[in-house]
Structure formats: C-alpha cells, structure tokens
Amino acid sequence: MPGKSNPSLKDPELYEELRDEGASKQKAARISNAAAKKGRSEVGRSGGESGSYEDWTVPELKRRAKELGQKGYSKKTKAQLISSLRNS
C-alpha cells in the first residue's frame, strides 16, 4: 500500500482517502498528484462535460479503453466497458 514512503505520490493523504472511497490506484494517484500541483479546489473544476458513457457506442468505448491502455477490452460487453472506464 503506497503512502508517505512512495515518492511518486505528491499528496499521500488524499491518495489514501480516495482509495478508501473505492478509487483505483491509478485514479487516486492521478487525482492526488494533480491536487498537489494545482491545489485541491482547482482539481474538481478542471475538465469538461463528456456526456454519459451510456450514450456512447461500443466502438467508441473500445477506442477510449485503448487510449487509456486497458487490456482485454475487445471481448467486453458495453456494460463491462463502461464499468472498466469509470474505474480506471
């Protein structure tokens, strides 16, 4: 379990909070490092509105999974793709 001994985590306290809430390791690290760089209040404001994954087609979901470097996406159903994208 990463914590203060992991030098790649810039905000280990926030990382642990996010992991306790169920975020994946990658997502928790990405958010905690962004918060350390920009400030916690700024992290929630960044990004735009991408729409609901339920509105995406299966090829669009697979393309996004590929962009994120996920493995095994080609055999997943739409529901499985949505779940893996939300938890990455």
SSE map:
Layout: H1 12-20, H2 25-38, H3 40-43, H4 58-67, H5 78-86
Helix pairs in contact: 1-2, 4-5
Describe the structure.
It is a single chain. This protein has 88 residues and is mainly α. Helix 4 packs parallel to helix 5. Helices cover 52% and strands 0% of the residues. The chain has helices at 12-20, 25-38, 40-43, 58-67, 78-86. The protein is built from five helices and no strands. The chain starts with 11 loop residues before the first helix and ends with a helix. The mean pLDDT is 80.
> Helical segment tally?
5
Q: Mean of residue pLDDT?
A: 80
Number of strands: 0
Q: Helix/strand-derived class? A: mainly alpha
Q: Which segments are poorly predicted (pLDDT under 50) over 5 or more consecutive residues?
A: none
**Helix residue percentage:** 40-55%
Summarize the helix and strand pattern as letters. HHHHH
Percent of residues in beta strands: under 5%
Oligomer: single chain
**Radius of gyration over C-alpha positions, nearest whole angstrom:** 15 Å
- Biggest sheet, in brief? none
Termini separation (Å)?
A: 18 Å
Q: Which outline best applies?
A: elongated
Quick overview:
The protein is built from five helices and no strands. It is mostly helical and 88 residues long.
Keywords:
single chain, 88 residues, mainly alpha, 5 helices
